[in-house]
Amino acid sequence: MSSESAAAWSYNIHETSSTTSIPLTEPQRKIIEQLADVFAKQLNTGVSVEKVVKYIYKFLYAGDYIPKQVFDYLQHFLSDKEKPYYALLGFCYEFGIGTKVDLDKAVKLYQQGAAVNGDVYSQNFLGLRFLDGMGVQRDPKKAYYWLKQSARIEFSTGQYNLAHCYQYGIGVEKNIKKSLFWYTKSADNGHTMASCAIGHIYRYGIGTRKNEMTAFESYRKSAEAGSEHGQHNIADCFRLGIGCSPDPEKAFYWEKKAAMGGNTTAQCGLSSFYAYGIGTKRDDRKAVYWYRRAAQEESLGQIGLSAHYANARGTLHDIHEAIRWARRSKESYPINHLFLRIGTMIQGFFNDTLIQENPKKA
Questions:
Q1: 13-31 as b/e: b if 16+ CB within 10 A
Q2: Does the pLDDT of residue 310 top 80, yes or no?
Q3: Of 28, 86, 105, 186, which has the fewest beta carbons less than 10 angstroms from its beta carbon?
Q4: CA distance 298 to 306
């Protein structure tokens, strides 16, 4: 990486705002400092970037702050190395917070924050951009390099992403032992998804001996820390008896928490709990409600909603709605549609002739 010039990554803040020469008041400075703390805290817990965006807007709206003004204030702080201001400003450009989406400017800010300031948050985002090729040419080796840099000073998200590189051989030789080492460090530093990853490795015996009790404890750690992914997985453990005795009531409890937190896989699972009375009283209407919630994003939710319309469970019989959701599932994930067709033909849910003869009604 020595051949890459930090000077070439310099970023002129005056390109984006004419307000940068106006000194900030103390209350304005506090807004930015608090916003940087929100940004850093959420990244360190392992929530998705979409949720980080939501937390930022929650902070802004709770204080009645105008996103564009806060974005302008933020540009005064790029010389301050105490907090991840380069990463935060780049994040604003990447997700259009207070400004238009501009991946080129986002990457330039991540590059300068990473190379000049040594900011682990910028290094993490720069590594991810090299990984997915957004705003920069995809380069797994550079992704690995920057993610390794971001993991060096107890930054849990950098450690999690570095572990991911070792697990899947991204820019480096696959090494499950090193992967577990970095997942464990990340989990110890509060990253809830790292605990889930450890759970998966031991549950399925990925590159190591299978250990369902260790998997269960890892999922529980994640679930109790508030991760919807951990909550869904611990529900699965209680449902199937993985590393514990089967307990339908506890399975239902954790699946409901995960579903209410927005996990679409858990929403589909919760629908099944209600549809078949697992750990709770059977309630087809609630099953339909949760399938409908999940169906906005999740193909399995679309399948479930389609079947309920076809079979008049928890809703009125509506073959056209059944076909519409089945087709949406096919578009989302074709193999799910295959399974659905096999199942519905066996159960007599659909009249296949109607699907073929009336495609425009779907």
A1: eeebbeebeeebeeebeeb
A2: no
A3: 28
A4: 13
Geometric angle at alpha carbon 166, from 162 and 171, rounded to 5°:
85
Q: Which two tokens stand for residue 100?
A: 């238009």
Of 253, 256, 257, 249, which Cα lies nearest the Cα of 271? 256
Distance CA 191, CA 223 (A): 11
**62 token code pair:** 């709770």
The burial class, CB within 10 Å (0-12 / 13-18 / 19+), for 329 is buried
Average pLDDT of the segment spanning 329-347: 46
pLDDT at residue number 304 = 63
Token representation of residue 152: 């060096």
Name residue, tokens 């590059």: 111
* Distance, CA of 353 to CA of 341 (rounded, Å): 13
Is the pLDDT confidence value at 355 over 70?
Answer: no
For the record, the structure tokens of 282 come out as 């059977």
For residue 190, the tally of other CB atoms under 10 A from its CB is: 16
Pick from 3-7, 46-50, 310-314 the range whose average pLDDT is largest: 46-50
Rg, C-alpha atoms of the chain: 24
Find the helix or strand (DSSP H, E) in which 272 lies.
Answer: helix 264-276
Query: pTM (2 decimals)?
Result: 0.80
Q: What are phi and psi of 259, to 5 degrees?
A: -65, -45
3-state DSSP percent of the chain in helix, strand and coil, to 5 = 70, 0, 30
User: In angstroms, what CA-CA distances link 239 with 182, 225, 245?
Assistant: 29, 20, 9
Find out whether 119 and 87 touch, Cβ atoms under 8 Å. yes
Intra-chain end-to-end CA distance of the chain, in Å: 55
Q: Which of 50-54, 147-151, 181-185, 264-268 is predicted least confidently?
A: 264-268
Closest to 251 in 3D by CA, of 260, 241, 262? 241
User: In the predicted model, what is the mean pLDDT of the chain?
Assistant: 83
244 and 238 Cβ atoms separated by less than 8 Å: yes
Do residues 231 and 261 make contact, with C-beta atoms less than 8 angstroms apart? yes
Q: Are 190 and 159 in contact (CB under 8 A)?
A: no
